[in-house]
Amino acid sequence: MTLDSIDQRILGVLQKQGRISNADLAERINLSASACHRRVQQLESAGFIRDYVALVDPRKVGRQTTVFVEITLSGQTDDVLEAFEKAVARVPDVLECHLMAGTADYMLKVVARDTEDFASIHRRSLATLPGVQGMRSNFALRTVFKTTALPV
How many domains does the chain divide into? Predict the structure, then answer.
C-alpha cells in the first residue's frame, strides 16, 4: 500500500488525536465518514497504524526522572545480542532500547522516581542483564520537547 495525501492527513490527525470520532476525522480531512472509515481500516490492515494507546504523564505516576543509559556488551555475537534483547524487554522501567552504531552497543531510555530509585533499577535490573560489560548513565534535567507523532 502506498500512502497518498489523504492517508497522510489521516495519520497526521490520528497521531495527535487518537480518540477523535470517525465523523470528526472525516470532517477534518474533507472526506465522507464511510470513505474515511474504510481508509482507517486499510491503514490498520496494512500495518501503518499499529495500535492505539493512552499517553500517561510520567510525573503524575511518580516517574519524573528520565535516564539515558549507554550499554556496552562483552561481545557482538548473535547469542549475546539476543540474550540481552530478550532480557532487557522484560525490565518494566526501560521504555526504549535501541541497537546503536558508535561507542555504545545499546541506548536505553529508563524512567525512575528519583536518583535513588534509578540506583536500585541499575543494581537490580540493568547490571544483571546478560552480556553487560559497561554502562554509562545520562540524566535528563528537563524535557524540552517530546512527541510520538512521526512526520508523514
Answer: 2
| Tens digit of each residue's pLDDT (9 = 90 or more) over 89-136 | 999 999 999 999 999 999 999 999 999 999 999 999 999 999 999 999
What are the CB-based long-range contacts (under 8 Å, 24+) for 116-125?
117/65, 118/65, 118/67, 121/91, 121/93, 125/91, 125/93, 125/94
92 and 133, same structural domain? yes
Domain that holds residue 117: 65-139
Q: Which residues contact 30 (CB under 8 A, 6 or more apart)?
A: none
Q: How far, in Å, CA of 108 to CA of 94, rounded?
A: 7
Q: What is the largest CA-CA distance in the chain?
A: 57
Residues 6+ apart with CB under 8 A from 13: 20, 25, 28, 29
The answer on 131 and 69 residing in a single domain is yes
